[in-house]
Specification:
Strand 3 (119-123), helix 6 and strand 4 (146-150) form a beta-alpha-beta unit. The chain has helices spanning 2-9, 13-28, 35-51, 53-64, 68-94, 131-142, 156-169, 182-189, 202-213, 237-248, 270-285, 301-312, 368-373, 389-398, 434-439, 464-474, 478-490; strands at 97-99, 108-116, 119-123, 146-150, 175-177, 195-199, 219-222, 228-231, 262-266, 320-322, 326-327, 332-333, 336-339, 356-362, 381-385, 403-406, 420-421, 427-428, 430-431, 441-449. It starts with a helix and ends with a helix. By secondary structure, it is of the alpha/beta class. The chain is 43% helix and 17% strand.
Amino acid sequence: MASEMEKKEVFDTESAKDLVKELRASFGSGKTKSYEWRRTQLTAMLKMLDEEEPQIVAALREDLSKPELESSVYEIAMLKNSCRLALKELKHWMKPEKAKTSLVTFPSSAEIVSEPLGVVLVISAWNYPFLLSLDPVIGAIAAGNAIVLKPSEIAPASASLLAKLVATYLDSSCIKVVEGAVPETSALLEQKWDKIFYTGNGRVARVVMAAAAKHLTPVVLELGGKSPVIVDSDINLLVATRRIIAGKWACNNGQACISPDYIITTKDYASKLVDSFKNELEKFYGKNPLESKDLSHIVNSNHFVRLSKLLDEDNVSSKIVHGGERDKTNLMIAPTILLDVPQDSLIMNEEIFGPLLPIITVDKVEDSFDVINSSGTKPLSAYLFTNNKKLKEKFVATVSAGGLVVNDTTVHVAEHTLPFGGVGDSGIGAYHGKFSFDAFSHKKAVLYRGFACDAFVRYPPYTRGKLRFFQAFLGGSILGMIRAVLRWSKS
């Protein structure tokens, strides 16, 4: 009897096929396209975030030991803001956008209509399991799609709660959550979707993109990379240090795709920077940071081992100038600063995604750009601390990344007017605010004409006169059109 129940609960390819079929029927009914349905779902999600905040905070504490402030501010509050913005702007976003027309189609009018793509798949990550699951879903709802959300199994308490809350608060005929690991994700990826939105690492992104290519399905890939921080010497060192700490360790203990991955500064300034970090880290997390309640733990033992491997490599462990303490039982690693690690070390050639922060030194701060660009990859974010106007300009002109911030870290994600996404190895596509709505919409071109002014020159039989007229017309030469007409009349 028990085995029969287990078989029924297995989510395989057939289950995925049936799920997509059910959602296509719901989408085909036109239900999700209405303003009322979209508004109702967004309002329900806002209610869910208000009413279930204690449960969400508890799940994040269970999965990541995430501090309540980080959970409430960086996950729940940001989702509420996304909901409120979508509710406020939804009618405006849905309204067709007027487009200009030219003499070629005169007389005519045109517009761009945003229409939902259809049935979309959102595969989210474990490090911000609510924000990275529901923020794309908000955009997909606002755009009028039916949705399947696949949360990460690496944050099981959050995934389970997401499934429960979405089923309770949102329209289960159009919005589904599928829990599970690789087999369930693989079954979903075998299906035809109208868009796949994936947040995670580059290795899995290649699997997602290969699966999408079989059905010509468009994708958004929100990935990561080694986000550098350039630190000049003409700065407010205290403020810069605190802002780097806030973006590194106060963002899930470095387990964030936009966390500073390494610092570049001059040889002359490095010791001052290290001393500043030592002072501020002790103020923030105490003399024994492994006991701090304001640091998330490493998500699981696999990631703990991975980070330990980076730290224990030959020619790296000797470069630790602060921190390095570890507690394997509680999956804690103290904030760790390393100075002048070798460029060919593992820690400098893969995304760290944890509480380790190497500092690389250069002779001149301008040399930092060569260090970043010589990596051959484009990071999700890049940061610069300076008061030098020319250095700011060179930073913006020289460094290619998903997003840049001058004199702070990570805060660009809070601005809904800015697109958030990567470039090259750090991702494809962008979202947040109106960009989320656009990510899940098709921009349909519509041209309206009447029956007046029917130009006979476009119809056969073709003549040299018609050719001359068209060449002048399409080239925008009024004089050429006049000459073509005059030649015509003479002939």
